[in-house]
Amino acid sequence: MTAATTTAPEPPRTGSPRSGDPAPGRRRSRFTDRLLGGAGGGWFPYLLVLPLVVVLWGYVVQPMLATFAQSGDGDGIANYTSFLSSAGVARSSLLTSLGISAASVLLCGIVGVAMAFLLKRFAFPGRRLIEAIILVPAALPPLIGAISFQLLYSETGILPRGLQQLFGTESPVLPFDGIAGVLVVHTFTMYPFFYLAASAALAGMDPSVEEAAYNLGAGRVRVWRTVLLPMLTPALVSASLLVFMTSLASYTAPLLFGVDRTMTMQIYINRTNGDLPMASTYASVLGVVSVLFLLGMRWYEGRRSYRSQSKGVSAHRREISNPVGRWLALVGSLLATVVLLAPVATIAVVAFSVDGSWTTEVLPTEYTMENFVAIFAEPQAFQPIVNSLQMSLLATVGCVVFGVLIAYAVRRLTFVGRGLLDVAVMLAWALPGTVVAINLIAAFSTGNAFSLGQVLIGTFWIMPLAYFVRFLPLVFRSSSAALAQLDPSLEEAARNLGASWWRAFGTVTLRLMLPGVLAGALLAFVHGVGEFVASVLIYTSSTAPISVAINNRMYSFEIGTAAAYGMLQVALIFVVMVVSGRLQGGGRAVREATRWTN
Amino acid sequence: MIGVTLESVSKRFAGAGDTAAVDDVDISIDAGEFFTLLGPSGCGKTTTLRMIAGFYFPTSGRIRFGGEDVTRKPPNKRDTGMVFQNYALFPHLSVAQNVGYGLKIRKVRGADARSRIAEALDQVHLAGYGDRRIDQLSGGQQQRVALARALVIRPRTLLLDEPLSNLDAKLREETRTEIRRIQRDAGLTSIYVTHDQAEAMAMSDRIAVMESGRVRQIGTPQEIYHRPATTFVARFIGRSNVLSLPVLAADAISVEVRLADDTSRTVAAPREHGLTESATALISIRPEHIGLCGPDEPEALAGRITDLEFTGMATNLTVDVSGQELMVATVEVPDGLAVGDRIGLRLPAARMWVVHP
């Protein structure tokens, strides 16, 4: 076959005869050439990736191993065997946690899928309003969210007392306590996983597929069973795994509704009782279960395959034509609106109530501006606000630097171990906040190489570090989503025009990623300001963040002041949501990241 | 201007096993030449172009720009101007800023830069569009901005990666004439990648036809059309009948073969055709070179029409000659000719050519 390669007469070659060696000046600049020239060279990716690996190893993986090591301190394997004995707290905590998670999946699945179908497939009055506010309860910071549900639905809550007064009964009507209360919080804050997944699947579904089934003679039920449900399955499985993981990690709801026998509560209780090896054991078990779920999810998402092709054609919405149905729909929408807005409204109302004035009444009776004045005017009350802003800002800067670079490395560079880098970030995402805190305690209660030999526990620095580990995946995800939208040839064009890798990255790639990065950074920042779960395990009196202050005020029955702090967090969240929504491409990044909550 | 030389260049991608995306390619492109890499998708043409641009480094072999070895040089040091398939215009920059990007890196500033940008935009008929945003331009205009951006840096070679594939048919023809004009005026060495053989034929000084990572033939459009080296080239460039015929005699430059009607033809063959008496030769002949006549005339193959398709400019016939189907294209069709009719075909020896498998 080689004979066929050339038949044309060899054209006369032009150009000067090639010179022997490159000029001596050239050789010297080879190293800088490659450093500045970058990607494409064999070792350049490793140069970029090395610091990323050090950070992920030092602050995510190595602390996790330290926790494993600590869990065996003294008693060896004994801590783990307590999970097997039938009488122990350990076993019942694990079972309760798993049970709550399973029930949460079921409840969230029913609510989320029903909402998705109602809102995406039917047209009725009030639909747009509900679509606009449907994510509000889930957007609340974990502590203030749980508090609002406690204020609304617990035995001393507004609704049971209101009903009690309405019907004149002896005790509050329909109070939610204990595990039921936890499930209410979980349902309201986690159904968006199902709602978002199902509505995305419904929106992405080519309506002609469904029409084809009808055209072939299938009835409504059959279409549901044979077409819609199978196409929704991947979305539902992913959402189930997410809700299960998130429920397992849930800490504030069991705390507020007094369910002590859950994994997260046991971590907290053992830590406060000073039994660090046992806390580490719980953290290890919870960590391992979470990681297994993470791996299961990645495996499942890797093999899911249904994607409809057609674009721009939205699925048909059915008008509800039956007059009774219309009235029912209207009443239902009103009710849903009230229920969705009630948590925020409760916090807002309570924030203006006088501390200690609200006892047995349905709603607070005395109102004042004093709570807001107090948290800003009293230096001691103002300190948590300063702490939170400061620590979140620090953590956010770190998240941006490393999140963007890791996203770039994972998406755009080829190097050995790329998959591991990706998994390491997702590990930080999968680990519950309590586990992250225990990991950092285990790793940094003595000096080690990654803390430059310093003991970090009990210092200011452990808090921003925890926030960094927890929220790095947010910036990573939003950056990664922004990068996925970006054609790699843009960077190549810049390189072709003479830009070094650094210059091409700065003037083109990073510049175009910016809206996504910014949206992720804002999200990381508000999550930092709302952080409670890890903070409560590692704060010191001088570094207490807002959420810890809220928790302390709740304990001393200063509910009004607690809610005023909460309103700051809520206000910040809504500002950030509006800003991100305006950022070009920011909306996508936020959607990517809404898959994350506590 | 400089020429570009590829010496036994191969590229294997990690994880792709033993298969090479580009396999031992030798190409020598003259200064000022318009050279096209042509082939179906997956043939390695884009990989070859990207190695010339510096986005991939070859696994083995050398690439030279003139006398300079650029094999391991990063893309930003090569001074090539590339036009990408999707244009890769920077969406956050205006038209003028896009065109000026490479100038800024070359530290061309102020009035000098402005006049060069204006000149480049003028060259692609976009004078006055400098302040537009990229998303305010049509596809054709974007394509021309991409071209201006590549030309303004006065590159050593111009690289074009299927730049016309996103344009509609009419615009594509206009633009290809325009690209050719600009290239000729500047005397710019250009390397063009396409899968469209008509485009390649119309634009190129020379074409390299690639298949499965290897160069199958390099030559002028005429050489490639009239003297295809292999069956693949014969069929990929235009349409071609490839007949397997027994060899009666062979010498260095020709082969005598026997046709179905027992007549023989002496057909020109490439050097090193390696055919000997009683071997089977592959002979290509273009549909438009086959003449029509009555079925029983001498020196003609008799056959039956199995398909007849009128395309306006020509009529395409499929004729069954003792079990083998031949494509015939003719401008003049005898009146009343229909599927099922018997017909005679004339195969002139001068239009036949021996090809490799």
From TrEMBL, chain B:
<dbReference type="InterPro" id="IPR003439">
    <property type="entry name" value="ABC_transporter-like_ATP-bd"/>
</dbReference>
<dbReference type="InterPro" id="IPR003593">
    <property type="entry name" value="AAA+_ATPase"/>
</dbReference>
<dbReference type="InterPro" id="IPR027417">
    <property type="entry name" value="P-loop_NTPase"/>
</dbReference>
<dbReference type="InterPro" id="IPR050093">
    <property type="entry name" value="ABC_SmlMolc_Importer"/>
</dbReference>
<dbReference type="InterPro" id="IPR017871">
    <property type="entry name" value="ABC_transporter-like_CS"/>
</dbReference>
<keyword id="KW-0067">ATP-binding</keyword>
<dbReference type="InterPro" id="IPR012340">
    <property type="entry name" value="NA-bd_OB-fold"/>
</dbReference>
<keyword id="KW-0813">Transport</keyword>
<protein>
    <submittedName>
        <fullName>ABC transporter ATP-binding protein</fullName>
    </submittedName>
</protein>
<dbReference type="Pfam" id="PF00005">
    <property type="entry name" value="ABC_tran"/>
</dbReference>
<keyword id="KW-0547">Nucleotide-binding</keyword>
<feature type="domain" description="ABC transporter">
    <location>
        <begin position="4"/>
        <end position="237"/>
    </location>
</feature>
<dbReference type="Pfam" id="PF08402">
    <property type="entry name" value="TOBE_2"/>
</dbReference>
<dbReference type="InterPro" id="IPR013611">
    <property type="entry name" value="Transp-assoc_OB_typ2"/>
</dbReference>
<dbReference type="InterPro" id="IPR008995">
    <property type="entry name" value="Mo/tungstate-bd_C_term_dom"/>
</dbReference>
<dbReference type="GO" id="GO:0005524">
    <property type="term" value="F:ATP binding"/>
</dbReference>
